[in-house]
Design brief:
The chain has 83 residues and is mainly β. 11% of the residues lie in helices and 47% in strands. Strands 1, 2, 3, 4, 5 and 6 form a six-stranded antiparallel β-sheet that branches. A hairpin with a 5-residue loop joins strand 2 and strand 3.
Length: 83
């Protein structure tokens, strides 16, 4: 199946390959376009997501989108429920 690394759109809801829905709340900041392209090409881009069903927030590294529109990521960190 075709897939590629993406920079998620803030505010957009994505369906994870496991069926969960996640809203992008933010993306890492890059000083210039070259830095952003490098991070994307290497699968090192960082985005912040929130699971729609319960508000679980996490930092995701290397978001991959498949031809069917579903996503997954290389790994996540910092998962928590908001205070």
């Amino acid at each position: 199946m075709d897939k590629q690394y993406i920079i998620p759109v803030i505010g957009q809801i994505y369906r994870n390959r496991n069926g969960g829905e996640y809203r992008c709340t933010d993306n890492a900041f890059y000083v210039n376009d070259a830095q952003e392209r490098r991070a994307l090409a290497l699968g090192e881009h960082v985005a912040y997501m929130e699971r729609v069903k319960d508000g679980w927030r996490l930092k995701v590294h290397g978001v991959i989108q498949y031809a069917d529109g579903t996503i997954e990521w290389n790994y996540s960190s910092g998962g928590h429920f908001p205070h």
